[in-house]
């Protein structure tokens, strides 16, 4: 069988594998990954197919990969999925049934989406001699704009697209055989997103996309000089895969001693990196609690981690400590083979999704192709039928139109009489509208008299007492809940010290940074957000 390319497209990197399919297993002959320039891929949609296609073509040529047939894997929050059960009908009618009822499954305009599905299993139920069978399906709705962008990418890179698969479906199919018994959670952590799957006895019971990854941790490593000077993004990520930069606890006051805490400065830096992962850990914990609440007495037999986040040293220790259950990297799965790889370490974890795409995958391109096929298959007999029906309908309409005209003429005459009699009501209605509008304006003006900044004074007094006079604040915004502002400092070390000092403010809680930037002169600009320790209660008029 000829080799085929399987490509997972992310917003920060692309993973490529040259696959060889076999009857009972599949293998990766060669695999590699490369960074994607910022802005080319946005939430799964290819924004510049020509530029990205040229880059992909050059990467394939440099490795002398000749395969031209490709299967893409897309991760996008715009792609909706839902479990559906339908009557046991002929397979060639399933697609038409799903497209007809698409608006019942998803809050979408069916004309703007392509519908695809995968058969999970066939269920039997009912009583009596004839048991009612049903299809258990996972149905996907993909915006045609997203699907078309991958057509353009394939064309720009000189490839022939065979399938566009969803990341959730690919992950599930890749690991299903390994989780055939028991309840298991698999967390796929990437740089800007996370996919959490719960699989019980081989069936997908829950899957959630979270738009949060390890980007914040990578930027925190860049910010602390104790890890190294002048790291770019890729160098910082590479360091995290070789050196443990993450403390195993989110508690900054923990007395846990770790070998990596060589100095007090290193301990503080590793604590900050762990703090940047707080939202990631919190989202996993909430998904666990939600599943266990709906399935009491059914705990997780294993929690495993995959994706680029699983390759970060210390990640599984942090998750194990905070989730109170052992978390391990994804174990090798029987049937998955790496014949040759540019990167041997963590290959199974990083490239796992590429094993889950095959000829039976839910193809997000299917509806586009099917529509074109129907359009090409129209013939003259259909046109004749339409003409005959149209001619008959026009004759009938001629007879009815005369009677309809007389009826509407009489009705218009009656309505004109009523309008003349009730002209005075229009003046009253206009006065009512004018008074209602004025009332809304006065009510809105009254709402502005409420101030959300009762806690602001305490923060400013503490800022004046504890921070140096050389601190420069550029932008500042305050609400009834918290504040956000941008500061300028002379170097990364001062930025780290400023952040740690702000965390000690009695007037603030949850102090975090959303990123730093360095100009040509070495000045560091850091954005900070925080909540007030005692946020003021807002009046109901604030929302008006």
Description:
With 544 residues, the protein is of the alpha/beta class. It has 4 domains: 4-79 and 117-121 and 138-214 and 277-369, Nucleotidyltransferase, domain 5, CATH 3.30.420; 216-275, no CATH class; 383-447, no CATH class; 456-543, Gyrase A, domain 2 (2-Layer Sandwich), CATH 3.30.1360. The chain contains 16 helices and 20 strands. It has a 6-stranded mixed sheet. The radius of gyration is 30 Å and the shape is globular. 31% of the residues are buried. The chain crosses the membrane at residues 382-407. Pfam families: PilM_2. This is Pilus assembly protein PilN. Keywords: Membrane, Transmembrane, Transmembrane helix. It comes from Anaerobutyricum hallii.
Gyration radius (Cα, Å) is 30 Å
Number of domains: 4
Low-confidence stretches: 368-379, 536-544
CATH superfamily of the largest domain: ATPase, nucleotide binding domain
Query: What is the CATH first-level class name of the largest domain?
Result: Alpha Beta
Notable traits:
544 residues; alpha/beta; Nucleotidyltransferase, domain 5; 16 helices; disordered C terminus; membrane; transmembrane; transmembrane helix; PilM; Pilus assembly protein PilN
Quick overview of this protein structure:
The protein is α/β, with parallel strands linked by helices. The chain has helices at residues 49-62, 94-100, 102-105, 144-156, 167-175, 215-223, 233-240, 264-275, 278-294, 315-323, 347-350, 366-376, 380-421, 423-447, 456-466, 492-502, and strands spanning 4-9, 13-21, 26-35, 41-42, 45-46, 69-74, 80-87, 113-125, 132-143, 160-166, 183-189, 194-200, 203-210, 302-306, 327-329, 336-338, 472-478, 482-489, 508-518, 524-532.
